[in-house]
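Standup notes
- DV: blocked on the single-chain target, sequence here:
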Amino acid sequence: MLALWLENNSISIRDDLPIPEPTPGEALVKVHLSGICATDLEMVRGYYPFKGVLGHEFVGEVVKAPQNSDWIGKRVVGEINIVCGKCDACRAGRSHHCANRSVLGIKEKNGSFAEFLTLPLKNLYPVPDNMPNEAAVFTEPMAAALEIQEQVQIHPLDKVLVVGAGRLGQLIARTLSLTGCDLNVVTRHPQQRELLQRSNISTVRENEVEPDKWDTVVEATGSATGFNLARLAVRPLGTIVLKSTYKGEVQVNFSALVVDEISIVGSRCGSFPPALRLLESGKVDPTFLISGRFPLSDALTAFERAAQPAVFKVLLDPMT
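- DV (later): unblocked, structure below
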């Protein structure tokens, strides 16, 4: 099997991996498309120690399901956390924080930058027939964007700032715009501004951000400077939502956070059904973010492309 392999902060193409065999309760999925995200780039830089096949955003087709043949032939997407169902977090309904979880392409589970992958059937969701693969592959990041509104109430009168207009920031902005809030997005590159302005979303540059003004600030840059800007922007009694994962440590003035009574909300994975419904509705079409499509055999070039400034979503196609 062909796959992109990560080991010692270095990626390589391998063609000697066996096709994984699904265990009871799992399915074997033939990958149709997979997306490179910021987390994948950070994994190569050492964000989390992992040896194996990268990738967690995918759409594919079930080709084997030992305990449920009804799944065979279905196009599917899949939630990335494989949970035990037995620990305190799982029993309390917090399975995304399962103490024993593995995570597709991130922790103890080979991912989607391969011809095939396995996942538990309970992690899989059928893709609507009318949804193209190019839209379905965005289900995981769309779910992550929608998770913000599960955690924080956004009202039409709220002033909301999104810091970061990259892959995820663009999706976050479009999902938040559906609330009718007074929304602005901090951009660095003309391409980012152009895409947002096409959707009638207002943009500001970093030096134009007014301090102590915003009810809710979403930080989606993955950088300490992004967090610092979010802290500058949020008003007293406001909320900062962190969608970033940072390598290393970020210096924070906690005394100022206490004095201003700032709420900080960590936000990670989201639920797939709302994301699929939104994608099917067409209210947010993520395909405008596709900056390139490469065969899996050319994944090293694809990663170079994805790491360039102002490049959005780069897709890997194992079918070509």
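- Follow-up: The domain at 142-266 is CATH 3.40.50.720 (Rossmann fold).
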